[in-house]
Amino acid sequence: MSLRSFSIAVAVAVVSISAAFGQIVAQPPAASAPPVSAPPALAPPAAAAAGKAKVYVPGLEQFMNAILMEHNKLWFAGRARNWELAAYELGEMKEIMGDVQDFVPVFKNLPLADMLDAVIVKEIADLEKAIAAKDGKAFVAGYDRLNAACNACHQGTENGFVVIKRPSAPAFTNQDYRPHR
Ligand code: HEC
Hints:
The protein has about 180 residues and is mainly alpha-helical. Helix content is about 60%, strand content about 0%. The chain folds into 2 domains: about 5-50; about 60-155.
């Protein structure tokens, strides 16, 4: 699930919880019920009381850490020549970059959305081609060029201390990156 759909899911959940609270609070006592002392009323969430649900938007570093995770998986999928999985991980990374464009288009007065666009149409597109062609060499070269693009943006945004490189080990050992069909 992309972070965007995750945020929407959270928003939907918050709205339905608020709606549920509204019902509980608004329900009149059954007509036949004897007059008992009212149970402690459930306080509606502050957001519901204000008439709108709060929507959680992840910070840029959270998007970036999600990108880092896909970036790690992408490497091991590509090295295992699991092209279907590699295409999937790259697609997910691209989706998160799209989320960044939507949610953090400008960062410290820098046009982050446009800067990401340059990477999407060049380095990401080249990797997509390498994966579609099942070309291991082009994949490795394209992956290194993507890393250079990650680092170029980090330098250009005064985050040059964030350095991306080829992973030496999978971040997760409970996912099998080998092709299985
Ligand atoms: C268009 C610019 C841009 C590109 C391209 C970019 N990043 Fe970033 N990245 C940033 C910015 C800006 C920050 C600092 C975020 C902050 O300070 O909240 C960052 C921070 C990070 C962090 C640090 C997060 C943390 O909490 O440690 C990681 C990891 C990261 N990026 C991974 C990547 C990877 C991997 C790529 C390439 C696949 C990439 N980034 C491409 C702009 C970019």
